[in-house]
Amino acid sequence: MATPSTPAGATTQTEGGTRGKLNKVVLAYSGGLDTSVIVPWLRENYGCEVVCFTADVGQGVGETEGLEAKAKASGASELVIADLREEFVRDYIFPCLRAGAVYERKYLLGTSMARPIIAKAMVDVAKACGADAVSHGCTGKGNDQVRFELTFFALNPKLAVVAPWREWDIKGREDAIEYAKKHNVPVVATKASIYSRDRNLWHISHEGDILEDPANEPAKDMFMMSVDPEDAPNTPEYLTIQIEKGLPVGFNGKKLSPATLLEELNEIGGKHGIGRIDMVENRLVGMKSRGVYETPGGTILASACRELEALTLDRESMQMKDMLALKYAELVYAGRWFDPLRESMDAFMEKMTETTTGEVTLKLYKGSVNVASRSSPNSLYRQDISSFEEGSGIYDQADAAGFIRLYGLPTRVRAMHEHGL
Amino acid sequence: MATTLAQSMACPKAVVVQAGVSLSESRCTTAICGASTNRMWGTSLSMTPAVSGLRKVSQAKGIRAAIGSVDVKTTEETKGGIRGKLNKVVLAYSGGLDTSVIVPWLRENYGCEVVCFTADVGQGVGETEGLEAKAKASGASELVIADLREEFVRDYIFPCLRAGAVYERKYLLGTSMARPIIAKAMVDVAKACGADAVSHGCTGKGNDQVRFELTFFALNPKLAVVAPWREWDIKGREDAIEYAKKHNVPVVATKKSIYSRDRNLWHISHEGDILEDPANEPAKDMFVMSVDPEDAPDTPEYLTIQIEKGLPVGFNGKKLSPATLLEELNEIGGKHGIGRIDMVENRLVGMKSRGVYETPGGTILTSACRELEALTLDRESMQMKDMLALKYAELVYAGRWFDPLRESMDAFMEKMTETTTGEVTLKLYKGSVNVASRSSPNSLYRQDISSFEEGSGIYDQADAAGFIRLYGLPTRVRAMQQHGL
């Protein structure tokens, strides 16, 4: 991790820029065309020093050295890189997994969970290097701008927030390339993907191009983290996930760190074509959008956690948990991570899954995950009660008569009223 | 006597009973039937022209009474039985060992006449004639058979499908939805033939006893309800066979399945045997409605489901009746290994149980309906709908069908899915259903707004700044308070 130092080479501009004056801005930097152009744009418009920040959340950061040179060539005074992978999985992904948070039936929140940790790290960097502002390269049309900025507000409301996409005149790739040239920013002549993607340890998302018509099936060559189920192995693979207190701790008997566990399950899941979803979703900013997501390891883990809960949670608990999970997903999708409601729900979820310890064996085959076996030392399932064979005497069939008469009493009273009795 | 009775019963569900049996007062005028029907179903269904039309047809063909000849053995027993006295009991009859034994048991214990009732809800009724003879050989005075398949799918399954009701993440409620319609038909038969009691062969350990009896309570609280399993000493198959022999009930020496199953047009369930340990994977040869995904075709199959106002109306351009649509999709889905689920569930009667379910056509329809809603429902609507769906599933699972809460939710669901019309193309492959395409004339998705290309001007990116500042104001205020600002 490159620690933020006092940038010797960067010039401090005391005069303002075109739009105002800021001293030092921490910019979420990816090395791509957009964020490379934002560096000179910030300096020109706000007369500020720019500190680039790159978080490794498993998107494939590439060459770190190359990135720093690139950032400086754009005009940044320094590049700070933070490896946030373990923290990302442990403190952001795992709580969502435990809660069973799924947005609008399908979305496993890959991008939603990543923005808060990146934004938080930016706030920390800003504090460490004395910056008075933060900036991001999110467009004004998406959810991510909201997720970044809600986190900025929650953690340091004094920071100014600059969102170039909402202010500048750059309309697309052509304008951006032109602006880069004008400001002597080296632009690598890579062909931009026709898709807009976001990738991290949990998932990759695809939007744009032919996906913009929900009547179109995705192209086979678009996918990146998983093989086509038709090309997946013809032999199913079984694996056993170990879970402790609602969170996965390893598989096939190996205990693994959160990030390592996810990485390995991504590989196995990807090989079997697990975790592809295609959806039209309601964005927070008001429109519907269509996206395709690949969440191989996460889909395996979600299946395992839900399956084990079937042994350890009673009826009322599961009911309430699943109702809260809907709300939890809404919060996370909207970027309301640093929020007392999300935090309170986590307290609920942590308590609720205290006994959810055990293992689940899953069968992976041609894009499907199915349960093959589950066990828990805290299982509330008792064969001696549910079995068709005569049981332990805990359950007396005659009791059911009284139960039904009382459980059905409101029904009977209403019916009696309707029948004039 | 019989014909006079039939004529006075304007209800099309009138059952012609054999002469010689004196009937207690039976009031079955159209007015009463019509009124109670409306109360049960609310105005929602009756106001939908297509549905009410179909319902009339269904009612006319609803109950086909198996008219029995006068059976000298079925003498009216005026003396009571061991446990009490009932006049006439309508028994939910399957022809299996259990319900065959219940017939003599009821007569012996309650000194009553037994009218057997069999509902066809797609379980595979088999030979109707054989069933009647079997019922009578057990001592029943008659067998009434009702073909309820269309009504089952249209009035019970489709509302649940529309609501998106899934119990405990996985269960598509196949058995839960069937019990109310069977029980309701039994209440109607009881009314028509003047029975004072109803009986079922559900054990005292399951959900079905609750589902049957809640329906009995809701529709006619005056009926006595007899649940032999909760009362008798018969502990299992051996006892049952012995009892049958003692009472001259013919028992067919078929090998009993090691699994306990329930089947209808929507699904088949499997419980028992090795499934009783949740650590055991189901055996490959247990499944009935679907092939193993590994044996499913290597080539995916695409099919397009047509949906109108939240309910499926056909596929691949063919409009089909509800039951026919489901039957055909069961076949296609079964061929591709679609719809297998394995779960440990919380029963209403308090214990956890493990069951495996096959719902091939239903899984396809569920996928299609949810997918189309993504085009037609806005954010807040989908949120609330999905929250209510959880509760809806709880109600249906518990047998609370004839319940104002379920009915009110149906009114909500009907309104909510008014615009959910269009088609969804699905890809079936090796046990999976995935969306390939969706379209709707009422789609709220606009490419000119969400596209990365410059759009129609409806969406101005600069607006987002104001939106975020206001949407985030509570967050900022709280943070300012924390920072002492």
UniProtKB/TrEMBL annotation, chain A:
Residues 24-186 form the Arginosuccinate synthase-like N-terminal domain. GO terms for cellular component: cytoplasm. Residues 195-413 form the Arginosuccinate synthase C-terminal domain. Keywords: Amino-acid biosynthesis, Arginine biosynthesis, ATP-binding, Ligase, Nucleotide-binding. Its EC number is 6.3.4.5. It comes from the Eukaryota. One of its GO terms (molecular function) is ATP binding. Pathway: Amino-acid biosynthesis; L-arginine biosynthesis; L-arginine from L-ornithine and carbamoyl phosphate: step 2/3. Homotetramer. This is argininosuccinate synthase. It comes from Ceratodon purpureus.
Automatic annotation (TrEMBL), chain B:
Residues 259-477 form the Arginosuccinate synthase C-terminal domain. The keyword Nucleotide-binding applies. It comes from the Eukaryota. GO terms for biological process: argininosuccinate metabolic process; L-arginine biosynthetic process; urea cycle. InterPro entries: Arginosuc_syn_C, Arginosuc_syn_N, Arginosuc_synth, Arginosuc_synth_CS, Arginosuc_synth_type_1_subfam, AS_cat/multimer_dom_body, Rossmann-like_a/b/a_fold. Keywords: Amino-acid biosynthesis, Arginine biosynthesis, ATP-binding, Ligase, Nucleotide-binding. GO terms for molecular function: argininosuccinate synthase activity; ATP binding. Residues 88-250 form the Arginosuccinate synthase-like N-terminal domain. Pathway: Amino-acid biosynthesis; L-arginine biosynthesis; L-arginine from L-ornithine and carbamoyl phosphate: step 2/3. GO terms for cellular component: cytoplasm. SUPFAM superfamilies: Adenine nucleotide alpha hydrolases-like, Argininosuccinate synthetase, C-terminal domain. This is argininosuccinate synthase. It comes from Ceratodon purpureus (Fire moss).
